[in-house]
Design brief:
Uridine Diphospho-n-acetylenolpyruvylglucosamine Reductase, domain 2; peptidoglycan synthesis; Uridine Diphospho-n-acetylenolpyruvylglucosamine Reductase, domain 1; FAD-bd_PCMH_sub1; FAD binding; 9 helices; cell wall biogenesis/degradation
Length: 305
Amino acid sequence: MIEKIAAELTEMNDALILKIDEPLHPYTYTKTGGNADIFIAPHTVAEVQSVVKYAHEHKIPLMVLGNGSNLIIRDGGIRGIVLYLMNMNKITHTNHTITAQTGAAIIDVSRYARDISHTGLEFACGIPGSVGGALHMNAGAYGGETKDVLNRALVLTETGVLLELDRETLEAGASYRHSLIGDKNYIVLEADFLLCEDSEAMIAAKMADFTEQRETRQPLEYPSCGSVFKRPAGRFVGPMIQEAGLQGYTIGGVQVSTKHAGFMVNVNNGTATDYMALIAHVQQVILEKYDVQLEPEVKIIGEQE
């Protein structure tokens, strides 16, 4: 069945990059996860649209994969099609608007803005995700959020219909680590960021400060999925985990970071199963100690091994 699907997709577009039973751990920041039945890395909007339409028409599960920075793929992998969008990474600008394709790293977009002396994306200089991921979860840091500068998005629906979303629609559907795009399960193709002119030196100084804070406080020396939990109302996750005595707690090869308790790091060939067990343990301890139910910020997908 998988071979038949792969053959039909290749016949539709012989330029399509397609692999069968592709390991997914190289594509995630945690360096964990099983295999994809079918792995496709498109280069154009037309290729994405044709695959999405095919999957919908044939009722084949489809999962979109970007930079894999805020994601845990279970060890059993992904059934159906994984659509890997990181080859679509062009960044351009016109006047005060930067247009970036879905696979462009949001860090690179912030640097592009700096280089053309435009302010507004400095907060994103340390966010490791793609543009598509940033829109999907309304990524933010240092007091800024993606919705603050997002002016337009070109997306695909689950049935393969192209839609253009304006600033008003996008902003109305966005909140902390949440977006209309995520609610509707839209596939981001490109985004417009509306910025303002400013001194390149001032922008660079702000980004340097944010980068120093990030490097000082976050365990960047190990694979991780970033901040694991959403911030509950009136609380900070890291201090709660630290006060509960969980910093350094390890299951398998995955550890609650000794540098920042809000992170879980892969210190010794950890698996997605290790991550899941550690997340569940931290949630249980925090619930018992503080009566706070921690909600994962990281997206968890795929099959159990």
